Amino acid sequence: MPVYNDNRLANGGLLVDRSKTVNFSFDGREFKGFAGDTIASALAANGQWLISRSFKYHRPRGALTMAGQDANTLVQLPSDPNVLADRETIRDGLNVSGQNFSGSLEKDSSRHLGMFSKFMPVGFYYKAFYKPAGAWEKWAPVIRKAAGLGVVDDTFEPEYYDKQYSFYDLVVVGAGPAGMTAAIQAAEQGAKVLLVDENPILGGSLAYSRLDAEGTQAEALRQAMIADIESHANIDVKLEAICNGYFGDNWLPVIQGKRLYKVRAKEAIMCVGSLEQQAVFHNNDLPGVMMSSAIQRLIKLYGVKPGQKAVVVTGNDEGYATALDMLDAGIEVVAVAELRDAAPESELMQAVSQRGVRILSNHAVYAANASSDKKHLSAVEIRQQISKGQCADSGETFACDLLCMAVGYTPTYQLICQAGGQLSYNDDTAMFTLSKLPKAFQIAGSVNANWSVNAVCGDARRAAAIAVNRLAETVERVSAMAEPAPVADDSANSPNYSWPIFPHPKGKEFVDFDEDLQIKDIVNATRDGYEHVQLVKRYSTCGMGPSQGRHSALATARIVANATGKSVAQTGVTTARPPFAPERLGHLAGRSFYPARYTNMHHRHLEAGAQMLQAGAWFRPAYYGPTNQRDNCIAAEVNNVRNNVGLVDVSTLGGIEVRGPDAGEFLNRVYTFGFAKQPLGRARYALMTNEAGVVIDDGVSCRFHDQLFYVTATTGGVDRVYQNMLKWNAQWCLDVDIANVTSAWCGVNIAGPKAREVLSKLCEDIDLSSEAFPYMGVREGHVAGVQARVIRVGFVGELGYEVHVPQHAGEALWDALMAAGEAHGIKPFGIEAQRVLRLEKGHIIIGQDTDAMSTPEEVQMGWAVSNKKPFFVGQRIIRELNKEPQYRSLVGFVVDDPKAPQPEESHLVIDGDKMTGRVTSCNYSPTLGKPVGMAYVPPGKTEPGSDIVIKVDGAPVAAKVVALPFYDPDTARQNL
Amino acid sequence: MNEFETTAPDSGLRRSQLYRTQQQGGAEFASLNGATVVKQFAADDAQQLKSLAMVDLSMLPRSGFKGRQAPEWLTRQGVEIPAEPNRATRQQDGSLVASLSVQEHLILSDLQITAGKPQQLENDWQMDADTACYALPRSDSHAWLLLTGEHLRDMLAKVCGIDFAAEEFANHQVAQTSVARLNSILIRDDVQLADGSTVLAFHLLCDVSSVEFMWDCLQDAMDEFGGKPAGLAALLA
C-alpha cells in the first residue's frame, strides 16, 4: 500500500480543503490529494518531485516557481497538452502524465541526450542536416518527431466558450497588497472597480510570504484588506482570472474559466508584482532546486513540506524569511550561502542565525549534485566568491534535498510594456524599472520597485489617488481626493543580487530552462555575431519557450551585456507581446456568431424536403428531394416549369426603393439603361457597372409611381448596390430617398405555361391577361388577400410572375399558391433548376458569368447600355473600351458528343497548349438533351458554328459555339 | 381592450417568423388584432419578466419615416419628436417614438396596443412631391423583441459591446449597434408590470430574416441567468 500525503504538514494550506480527498493518477500511478491542491502540490505531498522532462536534453524537471510561470511543470491531460501542473487543480479521476519523454517519464530513454550537448551547440540546427545533399529528407522526420511538446487529442470535441463585455472606472490587475490597497481607496471615492487576480484567493504575496520574524503580520494584513474589499459594493473581484494582454485605451482581455471578458477601463493600475529569478549554476535545474517563493507557496498555500534538509542561497531578506518558514515547517536548514559580502544584519537574518543556521557570507552555490537516480537534488557545493561570477577552487559540500534560491526579481513587465511602458535597467540596484507609461495607466507596488509592504501600499495609494482625481473630472459619482505623501521604502537594500551567475567547466548552468540553454549558449550566440538581444533570442531560442523569458530575460541580458561589453541597460530585453499566458483558441473564438437569414417560407422548403444551400447569410432551396437523386430532382423541376408550372422562392433577391422627385434621374445615373422616361406600370432591365465600366449587378426596375421605383438586385450584391447608391447620392445630392427593403418583402416566381391559370385563382383585382398585363409589366393589387406587387418577368424563359408581398405574409402566400396550383401540378423548384432554366434561356448570372473585368459588351449586354444619356457610372470608360477590339466574349456553346464528359465551371477553353478562355456556366439541359454552357472565348471564336476545345479533367472536349439563347429564341413562351 | 382568441400557430396571414421555435418552446398561441401571437409560455410568465425574459412583439404595430422633411411632417401629425437622435419620447397615446437620426424616426406601439399612432401615420402618409418624407416598412423589415428583467444587463453584456449601466444608458436612450454580430436597434424603455413594479426593459429590433438566429443567441445568453421567453398576456395584464 502506498503511503499518501507523507509530505503533508500537520497544519496550513490556505488553498486546500483537508476534509475532501481527491483521487487522481499520474504517470499511470494512483495518488491522493486534497481539494484545492494543484497537480504539482499534490504530487509534492506524495514525494513525487519529477513532473516532466526538458525539451532538448530530456532532463528531469520538477516544481520551480509553484506559480504557473515556468515550463518545468508542463504535463499532459487526456485532451489537453502543456497544462501547468502548478496551476491546474486536481479533480477525482483526473489522468495526468508527464511530457517529452521516450518510453516512460521515470526511465526516459532519451535522458542521456545531455551528454551530447557539445555536439548540439546553439544554432546547430541552422547549420546541420543540410549536407550532404538529401540529408534533410532523412533528418526531417526525426526532428519533427522530437519537436513540439505534448500530444494533441484529435478526437477532442469542441467545448462551450464565450465572451462578455465589462466596463469599469478602474481596473486593478493583481490583488496583492498594492492591488487591494488601490482598489479599496478608489472604491472609497466612489469609483466602480474591478480587481483581477490569477490566484484563487486574494492577497498575492501576503498569502505566502513572511514579513516579520514571528510570521504573523502578512496574514493579519491580508485578512484586514479582504474584509474591506468584501464589504465594498463598488469592488468586483475576479479570481483565477488572467489579464492576458493590453490593448489601446485600456482594453483588457480577462480570461476566467471558459469566458473571455472584454474589459474597458477608464483607468488601469497594474499591481502585477514581480517574478522571482533563479541563480545560474551547474545543475540548477534539478528537482529540489526551487525559488524561495515556491517553497513558501508549498508550505503556506498547500501545507506541503518541500524537503527534509535544505540549503539557502540568497542575496536578499527573502532567503532568510523562507529559511524561517522552512524551520517552522520542520525542515532542517543546514546552511545559508549569503551572496553579499557585507549584507546588513536584518531582523530576519538575526532570527535565522539565532536558530542555529550557519550563514556563509560572500558564498555562492557553485554546483548542485544529483541523486544516484539523477532525478533529484542530493547535495550542493558552496564556494566562496572571489570575483564577479567566479568562485574559489574548492568549497564545502552540503547534503540536502532542497535548495532555496532568493537572488532577485524582475518586475512583471509584460502587460506594461504592451501598453507602451519602457523597461530600463538600473546598474546600481541591478534591477529593471518601468517608465513612460501611457495615459490613464499606472503601476504600483513591487512592479514599481517598491519592496517593503509599507512602501508597496503607499505607492498604491499614490496611484489610486491619481486615478481617482482623473476620474472625478468626468465621472460624477467619483469624488476627488488629496494625493497622499510618498512613503519611503524601509527595506534596506535592493532585493536583486547583481551577478548570481556562476559558470562551471562542465556547463549545465541553465539560463533558460524551457530550451535547455546554458551560459555558453548565450555567449556563443554573441560570438556568432548575434550581439543584439533580439538576435540572440532568435538564434538561440532563449525566451521563445512556453515561459516566454520570464526567468531568463534578466540573466540573458546580463550575460549578453557582459559578453558584448555593453551595460545591461544598453542591452535590454526582448519584446513582450500578448498573450501574457497561454490561452485557448476557444477563448479567442468565443461563441460563434454567424448570422443566418431565412425567408418567411424557409420552413416550407424544409418540410418539402429541400436541400438548402447558403448564399451569403441566406439559406435557399437548392432542389427538392434526396441528395442521391439530385440530378433527377433538378431535371424534374426543370421539366415541370417548362411544361406545367413551378414556384420558386425569390425573397432573397435584393429590393431597393428609390423615391422622390429625382428618382428617375438617380436611376439614370446608377444604371446603364435609360429610366427617366420609364412608363408607370412597366419594368425595365437594370444593369449596373462600376467606375471602371465593369458589370457589378443587375436587376429589374419597376415603376409603381411617378416618384417610386422598386429595383431588384442580386442576392449577394444588394448590400453593395445599396451602399454604392448612398455613396453616389452623397456626392450628387439629388432629391431622392433610398431604402433597402430586401427583408421587408417576400417574393415568389410562379413560372410555366400554367402560371396565369394558377395565379388568377388568387388574384381578383389585377387583370392578368396578356393584353392587360404584358411581359415586363408591373401591377399592384392583392394575391391571396395580401397586398402584392406583381412583376411579369421571364428569367427562366416561361410565362411568369414575380409576386412580392410583405414579409409577414410570405408563408401564407406560398401555401395559397401551392394549394391553388395543386390541380395544375404545381411543384416547387430550387436554385439549381432555376440556374438550368436561365442558362437554357441564355441569361447570365452576375458573379458567375461575369468577373472583375467583365464589360457589358463582353457579356453581350451592349443592348442594355444607353448611348443617349449624358452620364452613368462607368459610361466614360465603357465608351473608351468600346473603341478598342475586344479580347474576349461570352458565348454559348453546346457539347454534341453524348459520350464526352460534361465541362464544368472554370474549365479552360484551350487552343493547343494555350489557354484562350474559360467556362462560366455549364449544365445538362433536360430540355435540349445535351450539355449547354457559356464561356469566354477569344476573337475569332465568337461566331455561331465556331469550334472550341474545352479541357475537362485534362482531356480535350470538342464544343461548338451557338447563338444565345439556347431555348425559345423568339421569346414566345414568356410572352404567352 | 385587446382580447386573445386561442388559435393555431400557423393560422392567419400575419405570423411571426418565430412561431415554430415558439411552438417547440411550449407557447400557447392566440389571435390578437388580426395577428397570431404567443399569449403565454408558462404560468409564471409575469415573474419571468422580472427576472429575465424576452417577448416577441413582432406582430405589434410599428412604423417608420425618414427624409429631409420627416420631422416637420411627423410634427404636423401630432408626433412629439425627441430632442436629439438616439433618444425616444413617449407619446400621449402611449406609443414610443425613437429618433434614429435627425431625419429618421421609428414609431412603436405601446405594449397594451391601444395607441393608434403607428398605424394611423402609415395610413395618412402619401407620396408627396412637396414633402420629402418617406414611409418605411418597419412592420416587415424588422423583428421586434422586448427584453426585460433584473439580469438583462448581464445578458446583454454577452452579446453587445455597449455599457448599459444605469448611469451610462438612461431610460429612453437608443443604441444602433451590433448584437450578436447583427445590426440592431436597442431602446431602453423600462416597463411597468401588472403588479405595479417597474422592470428594466429594452426593445430590440433587428432584420426580420435573422430573427431566428437572434432568438437562439439571446436564449443561449439568457440560459446562464435562467432567462426564458414569455408571452404577451403577461405584459397586457
Give the topology, please.
The complex is a heterodimer of chains A (976) and B (237).
Chain A: E1 17-26, E2 29-35, H1 39-45, E3 52-53, E4 60-61, E5 74-77, E6 80-84, E7 94-96, H2 124-127, H3 135-146, E8 162-173, H4 177-188, E9 193-196, H5 217-230, E10 235-238, E11 241-243, E12 251-256, E13 259-270, E14 274-276, E15 289-291, H6 292-302, E16 309-314, H7 317-328, E17 332-338, H8 347-354, E18 359-361, E19 363-370, E20 377-387, E21 390-399, E22 402-406, E23 409-411, H9 414-418, E24 422-426, E25 431-435, E26 441-443, H10 453-472, E27 510-512, E28 517-518, H11 519-527, H12 533-540, H13 553-564, H14 568-571, H15 585-589, H16 602-607, E29 610-615, E30 618-624, H17 630-643, E31 646-649, E32 654-659, H18 663-670, E33 683-689, E34 695-705, E35 708-713, H19 718-732, E36 737-740, E37 745-751, H20 755-760, E38 778-783, E39 786-791, E40 800-806, H21 810-821, E41 827-828, H22 831-840, H23 875-882, E42 889-894, E43 908-911, E44 914-925, E45 930-937, E46 947-952, E47 955-962
Parallel strand pairs in A: 1-7, 8-9, 8-13, 9-10, 13-26, 15-22, 16-17, 16-22, 17-18, 31-41
Antiparallel strand pairs in A: 1-2, 3-4, 5-6, 11-12, 12-13, 14-23, 19-20, 20-21, 24-25, 27-28, 29-30, 31-37, 32-35, 32-36, 33-34, 34-35, 37-40, 38-39, 39-40, 42-45, 42-47, 43-44, 43-46, 44-45, 46-47
Helix pairs in contact in A: 4-5, 4-10, 6-7, 7-8, 11-12, 11-13, 17-22
Chain B: E1 5-6, E2 14-15, H1 19-24, E3 28-32, E4 35-40, H2 45-51, E5 53-56, E6 62-66, H3 70-76, E7 87-90, E8 96-101, E9 104-108, H4 117-124, E10 134-136, H5 138-141, E11 142-148, H6 152-156, E12 174-179, E13 182-188, E14 191-192, E15 198-199, E16 201-207, H7 211-223, E17 228-229, H8 233-236
Parallel strand pairs in B: 2-4, 5-17
Antiparallel strand pairs in B: 1-3, 3-4, 5-11, 6-9, 6-10, 7-8, 8-9, 11-16, 12-13, 13-16, 14-15
